[in-house]
Specification:
Blueprint (H helix, E strand, L loop, with lengths): L9 E3 L2 E3 L6 E5 L7 H14 L3 E5 L3 H12 L5 E4 L7 H4 L5 E4 L13 H15 L2 E7 L5 H6 L6 H19 L5 E6 L3 H14 L5 E3 L9 H14 L6 E2 L11 H15 L15 E4 L10 H12 L9 E5 L5 H4 L5 E5 L3 E6 L2 E7 L3 H13 L1
Parallel strand pairs: 3-4, 3-10, 4-5, 5-6, 6-7, 7-8, 8-9, 9-10, 11-12, 12-13
Antiparallel strand pairs: 1-2, 13-14, 14-15
Helix pairs in contact: 1-2, 1-9, 6-7, 7-8, 8-9
């Protein structure tokens, strides 16, 4: 039930991705990179579950030093998530097999430099070290200039992420670099389906990494992910994928197991239908946690928010629970109520409006008050 894919085949060291290569399944270490022992444990858990590639986030020189130690103790294929500090690429390159950058984050640093120059730098590093690359576009962090072009358009969010991906493919193509994949992600599987179909129609040659970002807690997060993956894989769209679930650190291997199960089900023609009203009512978005999470209580908080809000199931309210200061502020803007977590406080938002920072002990009471006010 998965038709032949039209994408070209690229290589991440000895791992073929795209074309007629098997669909690769990957995940991301959820621990702080500087906690070397915990991060190595994550890598090994994911390897044992069958991960083809493991992503690690790097946001500082100290993270780079930790990454070097981790690299020396594992033969796993490693991808690095550069987040907002793209200049770290040359420092991490000797220790990884793939670079991932987010087009929406390139404007944060060295604002006097053009985006094209920054992309040229990243491609130069990848070429020098024989690395593959991922252009990773997230709906919650689209570059301001791209987002502005689609304001007022009913499909603006989906069109903006597709346009961002297409423009960065053109930049990379002009530099004569082909070993790259693209990911176009949103927390709404319907947007993920539409955006990836649009991109694949425009650039069928480019391998696609599939994912529903911040899919949240099982089983809901698995259902959201399955909806998107079933619709895309059955169209021959998708060459590698990640299931992003909010899980305890020791259970991260479940992301790999679920990913492979979805692929096997689609290959065998086993589809899980959902009722027409599946997207009605309360929607809880939660990120899968990664090394940027500064307090592990975030995972417990996400579980507590799910339990606390059971009484509001029938109300069309979206609540986002994000674990870090990098993606949290932007990716909670579209939620009715958003929480993004710091080391000691949880920042509460109503849409894009900041409502203040509360301790982990205070936040649930304040969240309930705001939810009751919305329902009222």
């Amino acid at each position: 039930m998965i038709p032949p894919r039209q994408s070209r085949t690229i290589h991440i060291r000895d791992l073929a991705v795209g074309g007629d290569a098997p669909i690769a399944v990957q995940s991301m270490a959820a621990t702080r990179t500087q906690d070397i022992e915990a991060t190595l444990r994550q890598v090994r858990i994911l390897e044992a579950a069958g991960a083809d590639l493991v992503r690690i986030a790097v946001d500082s020189a100290a993270d780079v030093e930790a990454l070097a130690v981790i690299r020396a103790q594992t033969k796993a294929l490693l991808s690095v998530d550069l987040q907002e500090n793209y200049r770290l690429a040359e420092k991490v390159a000797p220790h990884v097999d793939k670079l991932r950058y987010n087009p929406g984050h390139l404007h944060h640093h060295e604002k006097s430099k053009s985006i094209a120059d920054k992309v040229a730098y990243l491609v130069g590093v990848a070429k020098e070290h024989g690395l593959a690359m991922r252009i990773g576009v997230n709906a919650g962090s689209v570059a301001p200039d791209v987002r502005a072009r689609f304001e007022g358009n009913a499909e603006g969010e989906g069109l903006a992420i597709v346009q961002s991906a297409l423009e960065h493919c053109e930049l990379v193509d002009r530099l004569g670099f082909a070993d790259y994949v693209v990911s176009i992600k949103d927390s709404d599987p319907r947007v993920v389906i539409d955006a990836n179909v649009r991109f694949a129609e425009a650039r069928p040659d480019v391998p696609l990494h599939l994912g529903v970002t911040e899919a949240g807690l099982p089983p809901d997060g698995i259902v959201k992910t399955r909806i998107a993956f079933e619709q895309l894989l059955s169209r021959g769209i998708g060459d590698t994928l990640r299931v992003s679930l909010t899980l305890p650190f020791d259970d991260k291997g479940e992301e790999i197991v679920v990913g492979r199960q979805i692929i096997a089900d689609v290959e065998a023609g086993r589809f899980r239908s959902v009722p027409p009203n599946f997207f009605d009512g309360l929607n809880i978005i939660a990120c899968p946690s990664c090394s940027r999470v500064e307090n592990e209580r975030f995972i417990d908080l996400a579980q507590d928010v799910k339990k606390l809000t059971q009484y509001a199931q029938e109300h069309d309210v979206t609540i986002a629970v994000m674990g870090c200061r990098v993606n949290g502020p932007g990716e909670t803007d579209d939620a009715d109520l958003g929480l993004w977590c710091g080391p000691n406080f949880v920042n509460l938002k109503k849409g894009p409006e900041e409502l203040g920072a509360f301790t982990y002990d205070e936040i649930l009471g304040r969240l309930k008050a705001e939810l009751d006010a919305l329902i009222g």
